[in-house]
Amino acid sequence: MGQEDKKGKKFNSAHPYPIICEGRDGMAFIIHCLNALIRNQRIPDNRFEAIDFGGNEDIRETLKILPLLAGYSSMKSILVVRDAEQSATQAVVSLQESFRNAFDVEVPSDGSFVMNADGIRVGFYLFPGWKDGHFQDGTLEDLCDNILRDVKGEAGASYLQVSADKYLAHVLEQKGSFRRRHKNRLHTILSGTDRFVGLKIGEAAKVGAFDFEAEEMKELNERICEMMQP
């Protein structure tokens, strides 16, 4: 289901629904999200593929080369998933421009699917997700913070979040700033557990750290299921 080659160079033509993800963490997260949807019989097996396109600076090139790939004609829907980062508004504008340059289509600001001239539906989704009528600023790590499962014998997720914020605030007083606070926060939260300490996002997802049926996952799950609509 997964594909670690970057920039779309080895799309599997047997999968009509590729999900193009930002980085290996994004790809690993989507793989486990797909597995959960398959287990719940919301999507069929062996129809979807999660692919790492690299960093956000690579997405424009990735989309442009898709029509040149052997598997392109077998694709029915293409979904791009990336972080909103500090500005969801800017991320939306950037993705809209990338789709416009690659396929000459206007994708709405909510990322919903539109059909290109080749009959393939294209759209996008931003982490940490959709709320109150728009995409939220932030990252995949922010989403993971909010869907961490409460595990028997461990401190509750909400307690870990509060404790992590207190710890990071204390460190910030001494340090001055964090380059990637979203990563510091998630891994501080995971370090407060026995089962998930030291794990990367994909590793944590594999051993059940995240609830892929949580309310915060509703919009992403629905967007993935929408890929199969005609």
Report the C-alpha radius of gyration, rounded.
Answer: 18 Å
Strand content: 15-25%
Q: How would you spell out the order of helices and strands?
A: EEHEHEHEEEEHHHHH
The helix content is 40-55%
The structure class reads alpha/beta
Please sum up the structure shown.
The chain has about 230 residues and is of the alpha/beta class.
Short key terms for the protein model shown above:
two-stranded antiparallel ribbon; globular; 8 strands; alpha/beta; Rossmann fold; disordered N terminus; 15% strand; 230 residues; 40% helix; six-stranded mixed β-sheet
Describe this structure in words.
The protein is α/β, with parallel strands linked by helices and 230 residues long. The chain is built from 8 helices and 8 strands; from the N terminus they run ββαβαβαββββααααα. A 6-stranded mixed beta sheet has the order 1-3-2-4-6-5, with helices on both faces. α2 runs parallel beside α3. It is globular, with a radius of gyration of 18 Å.
Protein topology:
Layout: E1 2-3, E2 17-22, H1 23-39, E3 48-54, H2 59-65, E4 77-83, H3 88-103, E5 114-115, E6 121-127, E7 130-131, E8 134-135, H4 140-146, H5 157-175, H6 181-191, H7 201-206, H8 218-226
